[in-house]
Task: inverse folding
């Protein structure tokens, strides 16, 4: 028998045996073979034999998909062009994100359809204060990240090197249908950066759009131009982490660079219809100086306008920054005051309790428009048109005719 080409179709458990399915091309005819194997070692031996014989040209499980943004270098390595890290990989080597790999001279994503878990959150938790307030949002992430933030608050997911982290499996269609069934207005790509699960996020967003479900990206915005355009064509809202406003911070604390993030912010604001909000985690003695906050908020107003909400959130010691103290609430309130002084219409604090600083005010007459106590909404003084009911001034954002009533609860969801 002459095996001209072999590719893995799936690998799954049936009756405590491993069902190993592949196809081969036998004189131009596609044939599927099924092997019921009891021991993983047998599978590995078979794979190694096929690879050594040159019979297997593609080895992809159902979690692995081909990607578009890469090119082969003169030295034979493959460069990933998804994000500005531009990882240059030898065969079978993984990028910094860990979930994208050079496999037989192409970049593949190795975690498609797998998640670290699903939960319904209040949309204010993303945080988004001006996009469908009070509504539930189905949230999920995968594993891996294309930055190396020393302060990462989700490091167990973003820095995971164990695929066992991804215990939940769900197709894009299943996620969209689950959101609809649970009464969620939107789905969030969050917990880790959706840049690294670009293909899975886009497919899910497409499935959601067919059912009238909105898509929300929670991202650091560290992405290249072409994939950025493809990705945000399917998003309806985004909260981007503007982690600091110095190149020193980005380079030494996150392992990235500031300018690509600023480029993403300007792109979203001026070249898409995506609703945009910003978050900055305020870290004592790292990005909390008055000069840096002045420069950041002035840049936002000059380049993005007055109506992009800014969230200043509290840091807690984590990952590789255990030596830093918690952010005092006074630092958050000072950052908010600087933003308002420099013309930002909507500035908030997060990870700290202050109802006044969590609420939304009319930038024209000063009346409270949306009262918030943590994630619970109280006052609602918006007309169905999104205008202040006292003076008629438009409040920037995307609003339903009435406030949502999901509240602060969090609900785990099993899909599939």
Result:
């Amino acid at each position: 028998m002459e095996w001209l080409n072999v590719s893995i179709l799936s690998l799954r458990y049936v009756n405590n045996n491993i069902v190993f399915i592949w196809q081969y091309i036998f004189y131009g005819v596609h044939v599927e073979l099924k092997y019921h194997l009891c021991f993983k070692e047998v599978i590995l031996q078979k794979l190694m034999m096929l690879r050594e014989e040159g019979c297997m040209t593609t080895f992809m499980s159902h979690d692995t998909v081909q990607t578009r943004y890469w090119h082969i270098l003169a030295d034979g390595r493959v460069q990933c062009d998804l994000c500005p890290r531009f990882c240059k990989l030898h065969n079978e080597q993984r990028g910094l994100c860990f979930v994208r790999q050079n496999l037989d001279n192409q970049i593949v994503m190795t975690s498609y359809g797998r998640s670290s878990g699903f939960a319904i959150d209040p949309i204010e938790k993303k945080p988004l204060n001006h996009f469908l307030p009070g509504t539930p949002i189905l949230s999920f992430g995968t594993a891996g990240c294309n930055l190396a933030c020393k302060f990462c608050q989700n490091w167990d997911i973003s820095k995971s090197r164990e695929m066992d982290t991804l215990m939940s499996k769900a197709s894009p269609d299943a996620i969209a249908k689950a959101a609809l069934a649970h009464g969620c207005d939107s789905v969030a790509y969050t917990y880790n950066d959706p840049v690294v699960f670009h293909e899975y996020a886009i497919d899910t967003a497409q499935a959601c759009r067919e059912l009238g479900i909105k898509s929300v990206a929670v991202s650091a915005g560290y992405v290249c131009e072409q994939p950025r355009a493809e990705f945000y064509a399917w998003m309806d809202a985004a909260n981007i982490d503007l982690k600091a406003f110095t190149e020193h911070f980005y380079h030494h604390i996150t392992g990235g660079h500031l300018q690509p993030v600023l480029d993403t912010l300007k792109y979203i604001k001026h070249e898409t219809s995506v609703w945009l909000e910003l978050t900055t985690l305020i870290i004592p003695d790292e990005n909390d100086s008055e000069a840096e906050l002045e420069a950041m908020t002035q840049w936002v107003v000059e380049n993005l306008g007055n109506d992009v909400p800014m969230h200043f959130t509290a840091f807690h010691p984590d990952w590789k920054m255990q030596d830093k103290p918690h952010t005092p609430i006074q630092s958050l309130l000072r950052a908010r005051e600087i933003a308002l002084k420099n013309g930002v219409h909507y500035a908030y604090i997060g990870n700290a309790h202050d109802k006044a600083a969590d609420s939304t005010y009319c930038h024209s007459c000063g009346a409270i428009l949306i009262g918030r106590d943590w994630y619970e909404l109280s006052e609602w003084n918006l007309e169905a048109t999104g205008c202040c009911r006292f003076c008629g001034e438009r409040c920037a954002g995307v609003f339903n005719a009435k406030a949502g009533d999901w509240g602060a609860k969090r609900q785990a969801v099993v899909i599939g």
User: Anything to note?
Assistant: Residues 1-40, 50-60 have pLDDT under 50 and may be disordered.
